[in-house]
Specification:
Distance between the termini: 31 Å
């Protein structure tokens, strides 16, 4: 039993649900964020895909990574997932840059942010980039119905 009025949260289907005060200080809303376990799981999947890659061409590895990211992002994009998306995106960029630097076999003083720019990762290699959060389809109709019921 969870008492959300006391600030407690609970997890459901990979989401962490918590009651949060609105920024206008008038009322509350339910914030749905991906659980830490879900973020760790997708990172582990990406890490394993890159580790198993061996001498697979980078473009094929990127397409496998894109398939993983597409499914994960589409599942979690209905909540308040911007921070989680940033965390996973930064992780994927770092792992891909590390892979490219290792394959180039040069001394590495950094992870390769200057050598492997975002334009190269996203433009040339085609790394997944649709990290936008979208409202749940049909949620607006639910808000209108519940608002009209509270007025009655």
């Amino acid at each position: 039993m969870v008492d959300m009025l006391k600030g407690e949260a609970f997890g459901f289907l990979g989401f962490d649900l918590r009651r949060v005060r609105k920024s206008s200080k008038e009322g509350y809303f339910i914030r749905m964020t991906p659980k830490k376990k879900a973020r760790k799981a997708v990172k582990a999947k990406i890490r394993e895909t890159i580790r198993r890659g061996g001498s697979t061409p980078a473009t094929m590895l990127i397409s496998q990574i894109n398939a993983i990211l597409t499914g994960w992002v589409n599942y979690f994009r209905i909540g308040h997932s911007s921070r989680a998306f940033s965390e996973v995106r930064d992780y994927v960029e770092m792992k891909v840059r590390t892979l490219l630097t290792r394959r180039k076999r040069r001394r590495k003083s950094s992870v390769g942010g200057r050598r492997w720019s975002n334009e190269y990762l996203y433009g040339v290699l085609g790394l997944y980039w649709d990290w936008t959060v979208r409202p749940l389809p049909g949620a607006q109709a639910f808000v209108k119905v519940s608002a009209s019921r509270s007025d009655a």
